[in-house]
Design brief:
Elements: E1 3-8, H1 14-27, E2 32-36, H2 41-47, H3 53-62, E3 64-67, H4 81-88, E4 93-99, E5 112-118, E6 128-132, E7 135-138, H5 144-160, E8 165-170, H6 178-190, E9 197-202, H7 203-212, E10 219-222, H8 224-237, E11 245-249, E12 254-258, H9 275-287, H10 291-307, H11 321-331
Parallel strand pairs: 1-2, 1-3, 3-12, 5-10, 8-9, 8-10
Antiparallel strand pairs: 4-5, 4-11, 6-7, 11-12
Helix pairs in contact: 1-9, 1-11, 5-6, 7-8, 9-10, 10-11
The chain binds 1,4-dihydronicotinamide adenine dinucleotide.
1,4-dihydronicotinamide adenine dinucleotide is lined by residues 13, 17, 69-72, 82, 241-242, 257, 260-266, 272-273, 276, 314.
């Protein structure tokens, strides 16, 4: 029976990278029935809202979605579709594996980190208001429930994937109550996992340590904002946003997407690199129990990148998105 999966192509380069990834997955012959829905600025034009209810219903029904980047206006305009989807579907765990891709130039080799980011609250709760003109307040919401379940997720993931250590990243020296609660929940949950080493680091120090000696880390657990920032820093260790995937996981649904944005500067030129979205699709194939197709795509991607003959511009080549995808399909 075919897997039913919601496809949100996104905007900007989303159209190009999504089309490329769908073509590559189809070449593996895994039976997938895509349900394609639009979100973002295009959805406002057609449906009057950036996140139509049908999108959320579709992901809820299918339980799995593959999503391209969706642009969010800065400082005004509509709220983030990405944050909206995570909150509406309660996709509480953002999982970002950070690994080197053989052949991609990077500052470090043999990096293998897992970043687990709490995805539903913290400063991303979107609760901001103007107290009086010239003074605004942004609320950082932290609940014991969310901190506990993300800690359980991190330790369970560590145990399942035979990782040795979970480091919680915080700023509880300053935010004694909010980050303090995150830390307390981590400690309480961690006691139940004596086989996994525990470590605690303040976020600013973590950034410095990641740049100086990333090998000391294994699984890193953090709240929403730190996760957003630290995962981009970590992507920079292995060659940048073009090569790192991510998954947003909840109890009832999972949404897979690249970490990069809609890249308006190169949109529509057929030069975007589909690697990050493809690696997200590899995570998705593992999730839907198609590990063979996942492994074949990962291997074909490695072959193409290592041969250095057909690379997109960001990787130092001249190939178009289509040529790069064709090379992966040929390698399959
Ligand atoms: P961006 O990731 O779109 O672009 C940053 C730089 O990386 C640009 O120079 C771009 O050309 C390059 N780049 C990104 N992806 C690439 C790819 N696949 N191949 C080759 N080059 C690539 O970040 P930016 O400019 O900050 O954000 C643009 C828009 O994307 C914003 O509206 C933002 O809100 C949105 N965004 C959406 C995300 C999502 O849907 N999950 C995540 C991040 C940003």
């Amino acid at each position: 029976m075919a897997h039913k999966i919601t496809l949100i192509p996104g905007d900007g380069i989303g159209h190009e990278v999504s089309a490329a990834v769908v073509r590559i997955i189809e070449a593996t012959k895994v039976a997938i029935e895509w349900e394609t829905l639009i979100a973002g600025a295009e959805a406002i034009d057609r449906h009057g809202t950036p996140l139509p209810p049908e999108v959320i219903e579709s992901v809820r029904r299918n339980g799995v979605a593959l999503k391209g980047p969706v642009a969010t206006p800065v400082g005004g305009g509509f709220p983030s579709v990405n944050v909206g989807l995570r909150q509406a579907l309660d996709l509480y765990a953002n999982l970002r594996p950070v690994r080197n891709l053989p052949g991609v130039p990077s500052r470090f080799g043999d990096i293998d980190l897992i970043i687990v980011r709490e995805n539903t609250e913290g400063l991303y709760s979107g609760l901001e208001h103007e107290v009086v003109p010239g003074v605004v307040e942004s609320l950082k919401i932290v609940t014991e429930r969310a901190c506990t379940r993300i800690s359980i997720f991190a330790f369970e993931h560590a145990r399942k994937h035979k990782r040795r250590k979970v480091t919680v990243v915080h700023k509880a020296n300053i935010m004694k109550k909010s980050d303090g609660l995150f830390l307390q929940c981590f400690r309480r949950v961690g006691v139940e996992y004596p086989d996994i080493e525990r470590d605690e680091k303040i976020v600013d120090n973590t950034c410095m340590q990641l740049v100086m000696n990333p090998y000391q880390f294994d699984v890193l657990l953090m709240e929403n904002l730190y996760g957003d920032i630290v995962s981009d820093l970590a992507a920079g260790l292995v060659g940048g946003l073009g090569v790192v995937p991510s998954a947003n996981i909840g109890e009832k649904a999972a949404l897979f997407e690249a970490v990069h944005g809609s890249a308006p500067d190169i949109a529509g030129k057929n030069i975007a690199n589909p690697t990050a979205m493809l690696l997200s699709a590899v995570m998705m194939l593992d999730h839907i129990n198609e590990p063979e197709a996942a492994a074949r795509i990962a291997a074909a991607l490695n072959t193409v990148i290592q041969s250095k003959k057909t690379l997109t511009r960001d990787l130092g080549g001249t190939a178009s998105t289509t040529e790069f995808s064709d090379a992966i399909i040929a390698a399959l």
